[in-house]
Amino acid sequence: MKASAAKTRNKPSGKPNVRPAGKRPLQPLDHVKSSRAKATNAAAKSLQVRKPVADVPSVRERILEVAARLFAEYGMTGVGLRAITTEAKVNLASIAYHFGSKDGLLEALFSQRAAPIAQERMRLLALACEKHDPPELEHILDAFLRPALTLGVEPQFGGPAFVKLRARLGTEPETLSRKILSKAFDQSSRHFIAAFAKALPQMPRTEIEWRFHFMLGAMFYTMADSGRIQALTKGRCDPGDVTRALAHMIPFLAAGFRSAPVA
C-alpha cells in the first residue's frame, strides 16, 4: 500500500504546464535590468526642476510690517500690542521675545529702515562736495530730501507706511519719538547743517539752523501727504508725485535759505 501511494504521488497529472502567452520567467539578468530601470527613473525624478517656494516673511519681519502700518495710521499712543499681534497673527510672547516692549519695537523699526536713508544722504552729499567746493545749495537740498521721499517708499525700506510713520513721529512731542529720530538722523543732519553753512558763508549759523528747521517742516508735511492740497487744487498738486514735488520744493527752499537774515 505504501509503495502504491508513493507511485500515485509521483505520477504525472497529465495536465501540461502552460505558461501565459507573451510572458516568460524572469531570469537573473532580467532582475538586474529591472533594478537599473527603477534607479534611472528615480534619479530622473530627483533631477526635475522644482518650482521655487515664495519667500514667507519671518515672524519678526511680519511684526515690523504690521507695526509700521498701524503706527503710521493711528500714532504711537493709538496702537496697543494686542492690535499688532492680532493683525500679524502672532502672540504677545513673540513681541516680548523679539523686541521686549512696544518702545523696543518702534526703535527696532527705525534702526532697520532709517539707516539706509541716512547712508544715501551722506553718499549724495559726498558727491555734491566732490563736484563743487563749496557745494551748491540746490545739490545739498537734493541730497537731503530725495532719499527721504524716494528711497523711503521702497518696499524693502518699509514702503509708504514707513514714510508716513516718519512724518507722524516728526510732529509728535513724545519723548520716545524725539529719541528715536535723534538716534536715526542726528549725526547725518549735523553734516548737512555744516554743508549749508559752507555753501552760505555769509549767513549766521543761527539762521542756517532755523532754515534747516523750516526745511524739515516742508519735508514732513509732504511726506505725510494728508490730501489737503489735492482737495484745494482738484488734484493739480500731488505730493505723492515725488519727482514733481522735489522739482517745486528745492527752488522754494533754496530761495528761503538765501533770503536776507532776520535783523
| CATH topology heading of the largest domain | Tetracycline Repressor, domain 2
Straight-line N-to-C gap: 143 Å
Q: What's the β-strand tally?
A: 0
Question: What's the CATH architecture of the largest domain?
Answer: Orthogonal Bundle
CATH domain class name of the largest domain: Mainly Alpha
Number of helices: 13
Shape, per Cα inertia axes: globular
- Strand proportion, as a percent range, falls in under 5%
Structural class: mainly alpha
The protein's oligomeric status is: single chain
Q: Percent of residues in helical segments?
A: 55-70%
The run of helices and strands is HHHHHHHHHHHHH
Largest sheet: none
What's the CATH H-level homologous superfamily of the largest domain?
Answer: Tetracycline Repressor, domain 2
Low-confidence stretches: 1-9, 46-55
- Radius of gyration, CA atoms, in whole angstroms: 36 Å
Give the domain tally: 2
Could you report the average pLDDT, rounded to the nearest whole number? 80
